[in-house]
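Tutorial handout. Part one gives the primary structure; part two gives the three-dimensional structure as tokens.
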Amino acid sequence: MNNLPLPGPSKVAEITIFNILWKTRERKSFLTGTWLRTFEDSPLFFNCFAHVLAKGQNKYPYFKYYMKNIVLLTPGEHALLDQGTEEARISYALEVEERSGGKITADWGKLKALEEELKAEYKKYFPSTRGMMVGVKYNLLEQQAIVGMLNERYMESLKKKA
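Part two.
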């Protein structure tokens, strides 16, 4: 019998969202446009999904399941986003441009712009104050309702672009 632990509900939800994004988005890096097809069915597959507003720092916990907050990157780009220095990102951008003869760029500014957009959206839908209360926490039903509505809007916006 298999003794591997089963993923919890949180991991199952995240994997489901990743699979939806894989099926609905072009399978290219948000940063460079590099095709990601070679990672499908590989141990690195889930490393292609990067949260723009990092879920691990617990600053933006309610956007963990917001599809707009998850971009496709190569596993190396994902590592640079999460743990890389600014110098390492610049070096990578220069390397990509040089390797491609100037045809491909690693536009970290595009990711930064999306990050700022998401921060503003987070503040709008999950303000830290409500009335006179500071440090408001949202219960699970409130989180699901807001993020569900945002995901519906996001998916509709993708259909309009297509």
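Part three, for discussion. The mean pLDDT is 90. The longest strand covers residues 49-51.
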